[in-house]
Specification:
This protein is α+β, with helices and mostly antiparallel strands and about 400 residues long. The chain has eleven helices and five strands. It is an enzyme of class 2 (transferase).
């Protein structure tokens, strides 16, 4: 049997199994102590040692009650009764005196095995159990009147060995279970921390995309309009004021968008379309009209409305793509097309602007800046794809396709 000097780690005092085992051991101790005292008084009445036997028996019972029943789990307050080894030493000393005066009290050692195995390091506890077993065997041989009894010499150590081995095995199994529980709790805490970190990163990504597609694009448009107004203020005040009013309108919409995406609500255009009884198509038509773009719907919309996150993603993609057209493409015509297919919905944004060389730009689809990567991230989270076709001087076509049966979990 493996041995070590690790101190015992008893189960928590509130464990029902531990309480029941302790109750059985206390009861066994008092039964054996009482039986030994009664046996002595019946066989040796009126002897000079009788008062000593009675006094030591009462003292041993009182110590056991005080040290192991009344305050079994108090430790570290600096008193003698708070140290497990000292408590056990006091009880064993009184018990040893009793055994010297009356060998029949040796059987009281059996419950003391439990105390030793529960409070001492394994190696020390087994050594003490061996010593106590030897005392029990010696005392029983003194009481034996039929000569050498093999059942006492061999049976008693065998029973003690089985009891000790069983108890140590149970203690180690309990320790392994507590270690496993601690590992599981630690793993659960680590998983919770990981989920919080992932949630934080996802929220940061969401906010970065929202800020780019709404506030950043709006501020860029305002800057362009105000710069244009400043250049022509003296030459054409009416047009300059019109630019300022347009910039003011964009600022108002940006404010509404900021309030909504902070609370993770639908885009303002989508919310306004929903309030009027419309949906994604009306919201896209509003955005297209604002940017002087044509809007067209092909195919038949599914009976069930598109999920909110699909509608929000398509609207954000349309807003970002039209902002890119306005700022970079210098296009004379732009068209938005929403197409419903059997298994997916497709949004195409096409312009006749100056275009760009997708092969010279980083990314699998030649994405640049932050706008196109943000669009691609939105589409991939819904299990879709984003394609960009362009060439210098030949305009650009951006196509976002999202399956109608979107995955339950966002695609990483």
């Amino acid at each position: 049997m493996p041995q070590d000097d690790t101190p015992r780690s008893p189960a928590p005092p509130d464990d029902p199994d531990t309480r029941r085992l302790a109750l059985v051991m206390h009861a066994a101790f008092f039964v054996l102590l009482g039986a030994s005292l009664i046996r002595f008084l019946l066989r040796h009445p009126g002897e000079p040692r009788t008062p000593w036997i009675i006094g030591l028996s009462v003292t041993l019972a009182a110590l056991h009650v005080l040290l192991y029943v009344v305050r079994p789990a108090r430790h570290g307050d600096g008193t003698a009764a708070s140290h497990p080894r000292l408590r056990l030493a006091v009880v064993l000393l009184v018990w040893a005196l009793l055994v010297v005066l009356a060998p029949s009290f040796a059987w009281c050692a059996v419950p003391l095995f439990y105390i030793a195995l529960r409070t001492l390091p394994t190696r020390t506890a087994l050594a003490l159990v061996t010593l106590l077993t030897g005392v029990v065997v010696t005392a029983q041989l003194q009481l034996s009147t039929g000569g050498l009894d093999p059942t006492i010499v061999l049976g008693t150590p065998a029973v003690a060995a089985v009891a000790a081995a069983t108890f140590v095995h149970m203690q180690r199994q309990a320790a392994r279970q507590r270690t496993l529980i601690d590992d599981l709790l630690r793993t659960r805490r680590e998983l919770a921390a990981t989920e919080r970190r992932e949630g934080t990163l996802a929220e940061r990504q969401r906010l970065s995309m929202e800020i780019h597609d709404t506030l950043a694009q709006g501020l860029s448009s305002q800057q362009m309009l105000l710069q244009a107004a400043d250049r022509i203020w003296d030459a054409d005040p009416a047009t300059a004021r019109r630019h300022v009013r347009t910039a003011t309108s964009i600022a108002e919409r940006n404010l509404a968008e900021a309030r909504r995406f902070v609370h993770d609500l639908a885009p303002a255009d989508l919310a306004e379309a929903g309030a009027r009884g419309g949906g994604l198509e009306e919201a896209l038509r509003t955005v297209a009209a604002r940017e002087d773009a044509r809007f067209r719907v092909d195919g038949t919309a599914p009976a069930a409305p598109l999920p909110d996150r699909v509608q929000s993603a398509l609207l954000r993609i349309a807003q970002g793509a039209l902002a890119n057209v306005r700022e970079h493409a210098h296009a004379s015509a732009t068209a938005l097309t929403l197409t419903y297919l059997d298994d997916q919905v497709v949004l195409d944004i096409a312009d006749d602007g100056r275009g760009f060389d997708t092969h010279t730009l980083p990314g699998p689809t030649g994405v640049r800046g932050h706008g196109l990567p943000a669009m691609r991230a939105r589409v991939q989270q819904l299990g879709g794809t984003l394609a960009v076709e362009s060439a210098p001087g030949e305009g650009t076509v951006l196509s976002a396709a999202i399956p109608l049966a979107i995955p339950l979990e966002p695609t990483p």
